[in-house]
Amino acid sequence: MTNLETTGLLNHLEINVSNLAASRKFWDWLLLKHLGYQHYQVWEQGISYIKKPYSYLVFVQTDAQKLSAGYRRTHVGLNHLAFSVADKQLITRIKKELGSLNYNELYAARYPYAGGKKHYALYFEDPDRIKVEIVAIGE
Questions:
Q1: Of these four, 1, 11, 82, 94, which has the most CB atoms within 10 Å of its CB?
Q2: Alpha-carbon gap, residue 128 to 81, rounded angstroms
Q3: Of 95, 108, 96, 106, nearest to 130 (Cα)?
Q4: How far apart are CA 50 and CA 58, in angstroms?
Q5: Are 79 and 131 in contact (CB under 8 A)?
């Protein structure tokens, strides 16, 4: 990509989490195992994952004093993270693992078209109940 093509791309996103160990287990499973990310930075209070060469995600432990409010995706702020995949088979594999890992699938009765008749996707939650969407593109 040229500099002009990279202008405006998302560089990184930082998310505060209630339990860094639980979040790391979840995001390692999804990002490293299924979506081609790598560990980027690791420190006592956080971890980041990079999808080279352009963007990365950061998860930081929230201070204990600030945990009481909790996360609500329907309030002002982040609603969900959506990731593109090239094939539906990857979505099927991720879905099969969700139950055995005790992660909460959303809209299961309408899978895989909860987002509409032409939108093949899987929706689930991370340990802080942040909605994650995996959507098949190009098929």
A1: 94
A2: 13
A3: 106
A4: 9
A5: yes
The larger pLDDT score, comparing residue 72 to residue 52, is at 52
The confidence score (pLDDT) of residue 1 equals: 58
Q: Across-strand partners of 85?
A: 136
DSSP class of 65: G
Q: Which amino acid is at 13?
A: L
Token pair of 74, please?
């329907």
CA gap 137, 112 in Å, rounded: 13
DSSP-derived letter for residue 62 is P
The CATH class that applies to domain 1-63 reads: alpha beta
Q: What confidence score (pLDDT) does residue 99 get?
A: 86
Beta pairing class for 131-136 and 80-85: parallel
Amino acid at 33: K
- Kindly report the pTM of this predicted structure: 0.89
So where are the chain's domains? 1-63, 78-139
Domains 1-63 and 78-139 share a fold: yes
Out of 3.10.180.10, 2.40.50.140, 3.40.309.10, 3.30.2010.10, select the CATH number for domain 78-139: 3.10.180.10
